[in-house]
């Protein structure tokens, strides 16, 4: 636990100066247990901390701290899909359009706090 808190502290210090740049693994720490709640989508990191949908009992509670890019594009949110590497997945034109719509929705609704390192 101490190691996680130190890592979070260093990430917060760096982000205040440069904006967050996180890997998918680092993003997983931001699930609300020790800090804010972030999700990833299309390379962006969104702060969804204040969204009831991502709080305990919310419809998207289980998605916090995850990169949702492939799940949103394919409209599937099982762990197998969420763990796919976006660099290794080819999306159809329809899936790209769906992802673009979700990304716009998130950009309109939640603050961007950084970018995913993919």
- Give the radius of gyration: 14 Å
Overall CATH class: Alpha Beta
Question: Total number of helical segments?
Answer: 5
Contiguous uncertain segments of 5+ residues: none
- Largest sheet strand order: 1-4-3-2
Please identify the oligomeric state: single chain
CATH-derived topology: Flavocytochrome B2, Chain A, domain 1
Q: How many strands, what sense, and barrel or not for the largest sheet?
A: 4 strands, mixed
Q: How many distinct domains?
A: 1
Protein name: Cytochrome b5 heme-binding domain-containing protein
Keywords: Signal
GO cellular component, one term: endomembrane system
Signal peptide: 1-16
What can you tell me about this protein's structure?
The chain is an alpha+beta fold and 118 residues long. The protein has one domain (2-116): Cytochrome b5-like heme/steroid binding domain (Flavocytochrome B2, Chain A, domain 1, Roll). Helices cover 41% and strands 14% of the residues. The chain has five helices and four strands; from the N terminus they run αβαββαααβ. The protein has helices at 2-18, 24-27, 69-74, 79-82, 93-109; strands spanning 20-22, 38-41, 44-47, 112-116. Strands 1-4-3-2 form a four-stranded mixed sheet. A hairpin with a 2-residue loop joins strand 2 (38-41) and strand 3. The protein is globular, with a radius of gyration of 14 Å. Keywords: Signal. This is Cytochrome b5 heme-binding domain-containing protein. Residues 1-16 form the signal peptide.
């Amino acid at each position: 636990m101490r190691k996680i808190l130190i890592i979070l502290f260093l990430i917060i210090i760096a982000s205040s100066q440069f904006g967050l740049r996180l890997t998918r693994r680092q993003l997983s720490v931001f699930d609300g247990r020790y800090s804010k709640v972030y999700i990833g989508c299309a390379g962006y990191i969104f702060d969804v901390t204040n969204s009831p949908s991502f709080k305990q009992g919310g419809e998207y509670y289980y998605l916090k701290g995850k990169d949702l890019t492939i799940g949103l594009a394919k409209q599937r949110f099982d762990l197998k899909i969420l763990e796919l590497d976006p660099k290794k997945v080819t999306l159809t034109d329809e899936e790209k359009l769906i992802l673009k719509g979700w990304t716009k929705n998130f950009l309109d609704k939640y603050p961007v706090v950084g970018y995913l390192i993919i």
